[in-house]
Design goal:
This protein is of the alpha+beta class and about 250 residues long. The protein has 2 domains: about 140 residues, Uncharacterised protein YcnI-like PF07987, DUF1775 (Immunoglobulin-like, Sandwich), CATH 2.60.40.2230; about 55 residues. Helix content is about 35%, strand content about 30%. Strand 9 and strand 10 form a beta hairpin. The N and C termini lie far apart (about 150 Å).
Length: about 250
Amino acid sequence: MQNRRTTLSLPVRAAGAGLAALGIVAVGAGAASAHVTVTPSTTAAGAYTVLTFSVGHGCEGSPTTKIAIQMPEDVPQVTPTLNSGWTVQKVAKKLDAPIKDAHGNEITERIAQVVYTAKTPLADGYRDTFELQVQVPEKEGETLTFPVVQTCEKGQTGWVETPADGQDPEELEAPAPAFAITAATGEDHHGGAAAEEDAHESEDGDTKAEKADADDSDGKGLAIGGLVAGIGGLALGGVALARSGKKA
C-alpha cells in the first residue's frame, strides 16, 4: 500500500513542477515585454519621422522620475514634443566639424540627449510616452539605436544593451530601443513630392474648373442678354407698326 501511495503522488509532484516552470516562464515573458521601446511613424531613409518612446513600469516597483534618451550621432537635430506631466531639456554637444542640414544650413552642434523629468513621479505599473521628431539618415539597412536611462525614486535602469552580430535582441535583459532604416519611399523631406504634386494638380484642376464655370456663366449671360435685346427689338417694332397703322 505504501508503494502505491508513492506511485500515485509522483504525477502530482510532476504537475506541480510543471506549473512552477510555467509560472517562471510567465514571469520572464512579462519582464521581457516591459522594455522601454521606440515606435517610429516611418523608418524610410531621408524621411521625417516621429519616434514614440514608451515606458510602462518603474525600477523594481519604484516610481519613475526621469527619462534620458541618448541620440545617435547620425541624428544631429531633434524636436521633442511637450508632455504636460514632464519638463523637457535638450542637451547639446559641439561638433568636431560643422555639417549641413537638409536645407543647407550650417550646424555646429548636435542634440546629444533629450531629458524628460517628471513633475510628479510616474507610479510603477502606469504607462507614459515621449515623442521626438527627427529626420531618418540616408543609410538604408543600418540600425538606429537610442540608449535610454530610466531614473526612479530608488535606483535606475539603463536600457543600453545592443545585440551582438546574429543575436536576438529579445535575449537581452535591458535592450536599447532601436529600429532598422528601410528604403526611401520617394517622398521628399516635407511629406512627399508625390503628395505635393497631387496638391498642385488639384489646385490646377480647381483653377481650370473655376475658369470653365466662369466661361460658362459668361456665355449664358451673353445668350440671355441677346435674347432680352431681341425681345425688346420685337416689342419696339410692334409699337412702331401700330402707330403707323393708326396714322393711315
